[in-house]
Amino acid sequence: MSKKHQNLIEQMTLKEKASLTSGKDFWQSKNIDHLDIPSIFLADGPHGVRRQAAASDHLGLNVSIPATCFPTAATMANSWDVALGEKLGLALGKEAAVQKVNVLLGPGVNLKRNPLCGRNFEYFSEDPYLGGKMAASYIKGIQANGISACVKHLACNNQEENRMTLDSVVDERTFRELYLTAFEIAVKEGQVKSVMSAYNLINGVFANENKYLLVDILREEWGFKGLVVTDWGGNNDSVASLKCYNQLEMPGTLDRPEEIIEAIEKGELDESVLGDNVATMLDIVFETMEKGVKKAPEKFDEEKHHLFARQCAEESAVLLKNNGVLPLSKKKKVAFIGDFLYSPRYQGAGSSIVNPTRLDNTMALLDDYDLNLVGVCRGFNRYGKKNKALYREAIALAEQAEVVVLYLGLDEVTEAEGLDRIDLKLKENQISLLRSIKVLGKEIVVVLACGSVVEMPFATEVDAILHGYLNGQAGAAAMLDILVGKINPSGKLSETIPFRYEDVASSDNFPSKTRRIEYREAYGVGYRHFEKANLPVCFSFGFGLSYTNFEYSNLVVTGEGVTFDIKNTGKVSGKEAAQLYVGIKESAVIRPPKELKGFIKIDLKAGKTKTVHIPFDDKTFRYFNVLTNKWEIEPGVYDLYVGSSSADILLSGVIEQTGTGAPVPYDKSTLPNYVTGDLRNIPDEEFAALLG
Predict the structure, then answer these.
(1) Which one of 44, 127, 171, 231 is the catalytic residue?
(2) 623 and 664 housed in the same domain
(3) Mean pLDDT across the chain, nearest whole number?
(4) Residue 271: is its pLDDT beyond 70?
(5) CA 289/CA 296 separation, integer angstroms
(6) What is the predicted pLDDT for the residue at 63?
(7) pLDDT grade, residue 82 (50/70/90)?
(8) 562 lies in which domain range?
(9) I need a surface site. Which of 16, 71, 267, 592 has the fewest CB within 10 A?
(10) Rounded distance between C-alpha atoms, residue 657 and residue 261, angstroms
(11) What is the pLDDT, as a whole number, of residue 45?
């Protein structure tokens, strides 16, 4: 048994020790008063604190104590700004500590394998490097308050339907490179203190009792020393999970302690294993109580946090198209139309739902802006029900305007925990209204509010598209600031927007209607697939426009990284997220053309130039070799691509690596579709060969 807390643990009865591995209620761990062991409080969530004051549930059905609702992770990832992410973490952690929360259940870093996943609004990206870096920044900020962040859901929880029984079948290399890398960064760089195990199985073994995942990788390889907690109701075999150092079952049940005691009495579980788990539990209890909750201020500055939420929304909004109509001219008559003007979509549904301290509303804010406004109307029902009166009112208003700003998006029930979306489409009544206004010859600006990807068949028909995602309680003001030019947009997509869902590599097997889902597409997630298959997309990963322009030059490649200059060639200040991608053309290993390996966001005044550096790290050239069962580097000449998006490469160079001398892991002749990139048509025998 661990010597830490040994004296305290020796004073406990077996029943008391076992009791500490299961919660005492929906949100709290057990306390042992005579030993001065307090209970700790665990609470959602990833973009705002959801501490319920009365009735408890894990789906956000009951009201919680007011807290700042910041933009969701999917939104914040579009900022490409780790410094901003850390500041957001600081604010989240402060509010959690003020509300006496010891463990904040977030961030979520599950990879966006498929855009129909109903919970994608809670996750950062289709790219594990970007997702991991953003998560690490959140964690550093949250934990600076003395409490614990809890990164979730480890691992391969990429579908909501049947999530508690689904078996995610994935090959080892894909598992390591795509689905675990963000968690690895969160653990190693973020030094996260808590991890939540997923509901699902991975290759036949439940995540919460998966020794390979929780012991071999998480603890022994990554060096994690902290607490592992089940997802709510996600405990299966209590003894097996305890042997894998999944210390805490939530919410509490009577079964787990009794099963543990019975196993020890039968000689099936060594009591020292229970002691080690209890010692880890006590670490988190005392550390978060003494350094966090007990030192927390009595309140936080609600106004300051609201203004910061607005800044986060401003820096995460993505300008996808602009034919010169934005910023809005004071000389042009403008109409605002859309159901979302009246009641904003600002967060998703489920366990992450926040009771905001206040909520900005576009309708209430319009008078604060100097616009040549001819009117505002609802135009459509967001749930898709046709309403001729709303339609006629919108057309009549549009006829009076020169520019029509259309607020479109997804409704509240479309994006939710526990459900997956059925398609990537906006409701037809929104599209038909847009096209009717187009017939009038008006300039059209679309402002989108949705937490994930939607198809945009209207992209060529409108003059501007501003995507706000789910941008929190201050998002309405942020969008108006950008529309009028008060703020220069600087967000870039953290996921690819395809022309159609059928182009997605996993489109044919999502969601799985059985208890087994096969990740046949392997590396074919997001831009990796689209580039390998030479499929055109609507908007590329990493893409986003500005009200200014940037020029890249003077690339220098060294063994430590890349250095280059960025110049703001426009007339206004702006921020730019520069991206580094790495590929190798002559590869013996099956790969996508290139992968994100670094990024940096800078702020430049008009006419100014800045020299920036993106360093290489331990993930720049590595791949996971299934023969050696470790990370290796393939020898050869690597291509380095620097640009403003995955598709807009502005500088390129090369660097040679000697490699680690590992054998080639695959016989390419048995994996022809993976070699060519035809990842939507993987036959059974080829997937079996990949699994090994």
Answers:
(1) 231
(2) yes
(3) 96
(4) yes
(5) 10
(6) 79
(7) very high
(8) 516-691
(9) 267
(10) 54
(11) 86
Same domain for 170 and 64:
yes
Q: What is the C-alpha separation between 492 and 513, in angstroms, rounded?
A: 34
231 is an active site residue? yes
**CA 502, chain centre distance (Å):** 23
* Helix ranges, 421-560 (H): 428-439, 475-483, 527-532
Instruction: Tell me: do 487 and 538 sit in the same domain.
Output: no
Whole-number Cα distances in Å, 511 to 99, 121, 163, 687? 38, 17, 10, 18
Pairing of strands 561-568, 550-557: antiparallel
The CATH number of the domain holding residue 177 is 3.20.20.300
- Which residue matches tokens 């049947």? 162
2 pLDDT more than 70? no
Residues 498 and 546 in one domain: no
Same domain, 494 and 548: no
Pairwise CA distance, residues 232 & 150, whole Å: 13
Can you give the three-state secondary structure of 563-598, one letter per residue?
EEEEEECCCCCEEEEEEEEEECCCCCCCCCCCEEEE
For residues 332 and 238, membership in a common domain is answered with: no
The residue whose two tokens read 């023969």 is 627
Residues near 396 by Cβ (< 8 Å), separated by ≥ 6?
none
pLDDT classification of 56: cutoffs 50, 70, 90: low
How many residues in total does the chain contain? 692
Express each pLDDT in 109-144 by its tens digit: 999 999 999 999 999 999 999 999 999 999 999 999
CATH number of the domain at 499, please. Answer: 3.40.50.1700
Q: Are residues 631 and 677 in the same domain?
A: yes
Handedness of CA 240, 245, 250, 256 (dihedral sign): positive
